[in-house]
Amino acid sequence: MANIALDDDTAVVVIGSGAGGGTLANELCQKGIKVVVLEAGARESAQTFQNDEWGSFGQLSWLDKRTTSGSWRVARDFSGLPAWICKTVGGSTTHWAGASLRIQDHEFKALTNYGKVEGANLLDWPLTLQDLEPYYDKAEKKMGVTRTNGIPGLPGNNNFKVMYDGAKKLGYKDCHTGRMAINSRNRDGRGHCRQLGFCFQGCKMDAKWSTMNSEIPMAEKTGNLDLRPKAQVVKIEHDKSGKVNAVVYADADGNLQKQMARVVCVAGNSIETPRLLLNSESSKHPDGLANSSGQVGRNYMRHMTGSVYATFDEPVHMWRGTTMAGIITDESRHDPARGFVGGYEMETLSLGLPFMAAFLDPGGWGRDFCRAMDNYANMAGMWLVGEDMPQESNRITAHASEKDQFGMPVPNVHFDDHPNDIAMREHAFGQGRAIYEAAGANHIYPVPPYPSTHNLGTCRMSAKSADGVVNGNGQAHDIDNLFISDGSQFTTGASENPTLTIVTLAIRQADYIAKQMSMKAI
Amino acid sequence: MKQTPVEVNAPVALTRRRFLKTGSGVLMGTLMATGGTLAALAPSRTWALTMSALTDAEGDKLLKVTRAIFPHDTLDDAVYALVVKDLDAAAASDANVAKLLRAGLQDLDQRASGDWASLDYLARENIVIKMAGTDFFEKIRGTSVVSLYNNEMAWAHFGYEGASYDKGGYFDRGFQDLNWLPDPDANASPAKA
Ligand SMILES: Cc1cc2nc3c(=O)[nH]c(=O)nc-3n(C[C@H](O)[C@H](O)[C@H](O)COP(=O)(O)OP(=O)(O)OC[C@H]3O[C@@H](n4cnc5c(N)ncnc54)[C@H](O)[C@@H]3O)c2cc1C
Ligand code: SF4
Predict the structure, then answer these.
(1) CA B99 to ligand 2 centroid distance, Å
(2) How many CB atoms lie within 10 A of CB B9?
(3) How far is CA A515 from the centre of its chain?
(4) Considering only residues 195 to 214 of chain A, which have any Cβ-Cβ distance to chain B shorter than 8 Å?
(5) Chain A residues touching B165 at Cβ < 8 A
(6) For residue A450, what is the DSSP state?
(7) How does A41-77 read in b/e, with b if 16+ C-beta sit within 10 Å?
(8) What H or E segment, with its residue span, contains residue A248?
(9) Cβ within 8 Å of residue A221, ≥6 positions away
(10) Alpha-carbon distance values, A82 to A202, A300, A498 (Å)
(11) Among chain B residues, CA nearest to A168
């Protein structure tokens, strides 16, 4: 492991070690570039992960204060927890489910293909599926995605059997155990999945890819990585010319440190990334760093989500095995005849008894609630995840008065569903219900959105600098040596789970940064 | 945060007077379940919960309120006692919580025009339901939704098997044993490694 001095201004500083930051850091280190990774969370491992929902929640989640506003139901049900994401080395890849899907060609051109949608701030990505294909290949190989690179699919569990039966009876064509960054066979020095059923709690088998168990150890082997856990960045600084040159962070003891930098890459996930830019305002950047467009923090997307759980006369035991055990992709097409633009995926999901109680009907109680819980062993479940509309008014702002433990304004997350999101959710609830009824369900439970797990779009890519914050390489329009390296870059959300694309963009960005550095452009 | 079963201590060893001195009590009960996994988790059929801020009468009443909000007819009192344990702990560390709980319990008696706890369970439930939305109700609901379902006795009751790593996961323990529906195609769900 490298030991990079605080006043060394030759290294790339990466903020956050999740899907974007962890991957970018490793890719840069492999090219011989020195990297400092500043990660707010502590370092855990397969040994320290817990097969215990609430215990793990306390161990891995980002629990710093956040506030919410807007008409979305999360603001009512979980007012202090707008997002369910991580603060730990490896970020949210420690407890992601592993679904790894490519964004489709038409989704990269949302404005062109969907047309203007009232109230939505749609835009085409400044890059295409073709541009990304070689990098998607690399990402799938790196992550060991099943059903790619000759890797067999995972065996389906009981929850999948129920989904599959209903899907076939409804005439859906594309239902299988998914493309998962989970080893179905031993690979890359990591064992195969033993169907523990605690994918959301950190995989104790290391069968599931995370930057914690793959990218970061690989980067450490190069000798080019200086990883600092429990280092929470509070501000990015710039020199007189306007180029960023340092970041200020609170170390494990809460003392402020300043790390000089040649390049700064921000990958704190789509709430912390814009928050950091907004909190880094200066006389030169009065509205926040890289915010001449006014788009920093705007166009916050979280995917249209919802779940459908159903109970049956016979046992299911859905908690046994991979949390996300299968998928139906038939609805992820663009077909406005359904009453909305864009599409959605249907993916099995299971929650353990403790989380089922918390999420089944937030705020719920009484006999109906108890009847559902009484039938927990006979329950199957799926998650619905689709493209939501970017809206300028859905945004992350720095709170006017509330401060965090370091004295920095806390982020407020404002979100209103777009009518398109609502129409899509209604459709998805209907289809989810139909699937389980076809499989013989006796009761159906439509479940409202959980706190956001997919947070996107708050520093989006755009061809024109007026429309977004970064270009197609994630480079800030305003500042050449500042990069956004996480899901904040997404121009639109698409219907797919985002992480494969975040990793793909990070691999591509590493090539670009290395080239720019060798050309001395940055 | 996971809770182990209520400690079963010998209630007889503690004299009534001692509780009165501290103003707190011991909640006692007997397991309904005489067989099965739940009973196996408890070292003995009687259980007791030492309270630190609330009296045993208050604890008993809170247990009944919790049952009324989350009425699982066959779920043992011992599991509901875990909610009381957490409410008592909250009351011990925050005087406002103690005040809130005591006022709520008095309110119940007022609504019942007498001793709410002595009514039959449906009558009790009907009164509690009308308190939905009050701080008292929300405190108990919010505590219960975690405490009631986050312990091994509840898991045994509802059939949830919980942690699996120590047992090698569910790989050889039934993750695909559902047999009341046909098995998916091998393309859709390949054989396990
Ligand atoms: C329960 C769950 C299931 C999921 N399942 C899937 C799935 O199946 N498929 C899929 O594609 N996606 C899934 N996701 C989403 C996936 O986890 C995220 O898309 C992905 O991890 C985001 O990558 P990121 O780099 O943007 O942020 P993260 O992975 O969240 O990493 C951000 C890191 O930055 C750190 N950080 C933030 N601010 C600072 C700061 N100021 N200073 C220092 N460090 C900071 C954080 O501590 C964190 O470690 C899931 C998420 C959750 C929560
Ligand atoms: S089910 Fe598989 S991937 Fe998920 S935590 Fe268990 S071993 Fe890991």
Answers:
(1) 45
(2) 17
(3) 27
(4) 195-198, 204-205
(5) 51, 196, 198, 204-205
(6) P
(7) beebebeebbbbbbbbbebbbbeeebbbebebebbeb
(8) strand A244-250
(9) none
(10) 21, 12, 18
(11) B184
Structure tokens at A425: 């959710």
Residues in chain B: 193
Q: Looking at the predicted complex, does its ipTM rise above 0.90? A: yes
Q: Over its length of 522 residues, how does chain A's per-residue pLDDT go in tens digits? A: 799 999 999 999 999 999 999 999 999 999 999 999 999 999 999 999 999 999 999 999 999 999 999 999 999 999 999 999 999 999 999 999 999 999 999 999 999 999 999 999 999 999 999 999 999 999 999 999 999 999 999 999 999 999 999 999 999 999 999 999 999 999 999 999 999 999 999 999 999 999 999 999 999 999 999 999 999 999 999 999 999 999 999 999 999 999 999 999 999 999 999 999 999 999 999 999 999 999 999 999 999 999 999 999 999 999 999 999 999 999 999 999 999 999 999 999 999 999 999 999 999 999 999 999 999 999 999 999 999 999 999 999 999 999 999 999 999 999 999 999 999 999 999 999 999 999 999 999 999 999 999 999 999 999 999 999 999 999 999 999 999 999 999 999 999 999 999 999 999 999 999 999 999 999
Six-digit token string for B91: 């009351």
Sequence-separated (6 or more) residues with CB below 8 Å from residue A333: A343
Q: Provide the chain B residues 94-113 that lie in CB contact (below 8 A) with chain A.
A: none
Distance separating the N- and C-terminal Cα atoms of chain B? 35
Residues of B in contact with A156 (CB under 8 A): 176, 184, 188-189
Asked whether the beta carbons of B137 and B128 are under 8 A apart, the reply is yes
B21 in A contact zone (CB under 8 Å): no
**How far is it, in rounded angstroms, from Cα B15 to Cα A199?**
49
User: For residues B71 and A411, what is the distance between their CA atoms, to the nearest angstrom?
Assistant: 39
Question: Ligand 2 center to residue A197 CA distance, Å?
Answer: 6
Tokens of B22: 């501290």
The sign of the CA dihedral A123, A125, A130, A132 is: negative
Cα separation, A24 vs A502, in Å, equals 10
Q: How far are the Cα atoms of A299, A303, A324 from residue A340, in angstroms, in the given order?
A: 19, 14, 26
Phi (first) and psi of residue A120, to 5 degrees: -100, 150
Token duo for residue A461: 């890519």
Q: For residue A240, give the DSSP letter.
A: T
Tokens 């089944």 found at = A360
Distance from C-alpha of A263 to C-alpha of A479, rounded to nearest angstrom: 10
